[in-house]
Amino acid sequence: MTSLFDSYQLGGRTLPNRIVMAPMSRARATADGLPTPSTATYYAQRASAGLLVSEGVQPSRKGSRTRTRRGCTTTNRSPPGGR
Fold first, then answer.
1. pTM to 2 decimals?
2. Which of 17, 36, 49, 50 could form a disulfide with 21 if both were Cys (CB 3.0 to 4.6 A apart)?
3. In which domain, by residue range, is 54 found?
4. Cα dist. 45→19, 60, 61, 75 in Å?
5. Does residue 32 belong to any structural domain of this protein?
């Protein structure tokens, strides 16, 4: 019988388990829509899940409900100290 903790082949990747974290809007961005160090920490703390689906990003600041949603409205999309 397959277990939740068994590895899973997804396309060309082997996931360590079958746990999937669904996307959630965490509102951990700067007013410019850039991720913050707490964004990186949040995902690092959950990295043991088999698959993380990150939150969506706003293509336009006009469509954002809050000022702390990640967006792709600037040319600099890297978090401070990020990669």
1. 0.63
2. 49
3. 21-75
4. 14, 29, 28, 28
5. yes
